[in-house]
Amino acid sequence: MPENFQNFIAGEWVAPSTGNYFENRNPADWNDLIGCFPRSGPEDATRAIASARRGFVQWSRTPAPLRGAVLQRVGELLVQQQEAIARAMTREMGKVLAETRGDVQEGIDTAFYAASEGRRLFGRVVPSELRNKWAMSYRRPIGVAGIITPFNFPMAIPTWKMFPALLCGNAVIFKPAEDVPHTGHLLVEVLLEAGLPPEVIQLVHGQGSVVGRALIEHPEVPVISFTGSTETGAIIGATCGRMHKRLSLEMGGKNAMIVMDDADLDLALDGVVWGAFGTTGQRCTATSRLILHEKIHDRFLKMLGDRAGTLRLGPGLEERTEVGPLIHEESRQKVDRYVGIGKKEGAAVLVGGSTASGGALDTGWFYQPTVLAGVNPGMRVAQEEIFGPVLSAINVGSLDEAVRVNNDVPYGLSSSLYTRDVNAAFRAMADLDNGITYINAPTIGAEAHLPFGGVKQTGNGHREGGWEVYDFYSETKVCYVDYSGQLQRAQIDTYD
Ligand code: NAD
Fold first, then answer.
1. Which amino acids are annotated catalytic?
2. Measured from the CB, is residue 152 less than 6 Å from ligand 1?
3. Pocket-testing residue among 232, 330, 468, ligand 1, by greatest number of atoms within 8 A of Cβ
């Protein structure tokens, strides 16, 4: 019998009010049932919100350095459990072990950064324009934060959101993606073991359109942080806008790597293989367009075709595997549909182009690493997020044209430029319309202590990570203390 996992609501592990569960299966072997997870209803979310409000009263009054000490302990526990969590994550999400270890490492880095922030969380003391008057700003916690996350970084993304939210004194309700509930469960166990007061964290599993929606529509969840598709983000944004909620959206991408004629082509080849096919192309920052200068176009495509055709597909738990499966059947169908669209639009399949089969691959959602050549910038495969191991190669005649092609998509998360020309690199850094640009490195690879996010339809202006996310999870309050003993009128008595 598979294990029935529970929600964590009001300080207890509890069954969903619906009595219903959904299966969580290994995408590399659909015969491997990991467990059953609650298909919760709106009532579960409502109970979690009432409890989190009690948790908030307690936690918001806990001094920030003590909140930081809990997160320090969280980081230490994640270090101890890194390998076990990485293996559980690979089993339910599919990416290779080196990547799931890195995913947990990002959680560890985020925990230690948040812990140290407990002794900073700076406000400002600012000179007043009036005599004998003190002026300062400081941060206050906001309330209950609803955290809704995608499947592709089951540990890193929840920790990017939760740890700063908690450090700032908020209570958290966590709704993990349906495809990766086990990692979410393990993370909440770590938080509790580290000594987080139980009502400060609530875990409610289930469908986004039910549980996620209940959080978004509830007036007592003033902060929502969402990472996922641009389509879902638009639905959430409409509700949060109507309800005047604070909302952080991190959404889709269509990231490009530009390779100029003076680039180190071997370095660029390593970069594009990692950027396009790492995580089976299921990263928001995945390289999905390859913009090649015409002088190296044919040579580089030949090198890429040779390399991409030899990548070893298989279960991510096997150390020799380089590319794991896609997350589920619909995802594989979507990838295959886009390859068909590309062909119809006139692109040529340089390598890959169909589902992968044979041996262990027959019971998982595998797709061949695919390169489409002869792609025009306006084609759908060059404009729309595919979210799989498909790379569209585009030929350009100059850096200016490459920058134009990079910018001419609805998204703006990450970009990359390979060149040895320092002037070109600095010009491109200014002109590439993305939240992140890499020089001589692929489009992927965020660091926990730097702000992360994108422009245009990738985001709504907030950033995860680094110092900026602490602004999102705290309310700025300003206090003035007038010790002049007389009425001083701002803007009127200022220059007396
Ligand atoms: P998704 O939008 O399908 O789901 C994300 C989360 O939203 C899940 O937890 C889901 O249950 C929930 N959800 C779905 N409908 C909802 C609704 N109506 N109300 C509230 N919640 C709802 O995304 P996914 O397939 O899990 O992830 C892939 C997408 O995430 C890609 O588009 C990728 O680019 C994006 N992503 C972006 C970033 C970034 O930082 N920009 C990072 C990772 C992934």
1. 250, 284
2. yes
3. 232
Q: How far is the CA of 250 from the centre of ligand 1 (A)?
A: 9
Is 284's C-beta closer than 6 angstroms to any atom of ligand 1? yes
The C-alpha angle with vertex 461 and arms to 283 and 474, in degrees rounded to 5, equals 105
The b-or-e profile of 220-250 (16+ CB within 10 A means b, else e) is ebbbbbbbbebebbebbbeebeeeebbbbbb
d(CA 194, CA 2): 28
260 CA → ligand 1 middle, Å = 34
Q: Is the pTM here over 0.85, yes or no?
A: yes
C-alpha 228 to ligand 1 mean position (Å): 2
Q: For ligand 1, say whether the CB of 389 is within 6 Å of any of its atoms.
A: no
Distance of alpha carbon 70 from alpha carbon 198, whole angstroms:
12
From first to last of the 496 residues of the chain, give the pLDDT tens digit: 789 999 999 999 999 999 999 999 999 999 999 999 999 999 999 999 999 999 999 999 999 999 999 999 999 999 999 999 999 999 999 999 999 999 999 999 999 999 999 999 999 999 999 999 999 999 999 999 999 999 999 999 999 999 999 999 999 999 999 999 999 999 999 999 999 999 999 999 999 999 999 999 999 999 999 999 999 999 999 999 999 999 999 999 999 999 999 999 999 999 999 999 999 999 999 999 999 999 999 999 999 999 999 999 999 999 999 999 999 999 999 999 999 999 999 999 999 999 999 999 999 999 999 999 999 999 999 999 999 999 999 999 999 999 999 999 999 999 999 999 999 999 999 999 999 999 999 999 899 999 999 999 999 999 999 999 999 999 999 999 999 999 999 999 986 6
Interval between CA 82 and ligand 1 midpoint (Å): 25
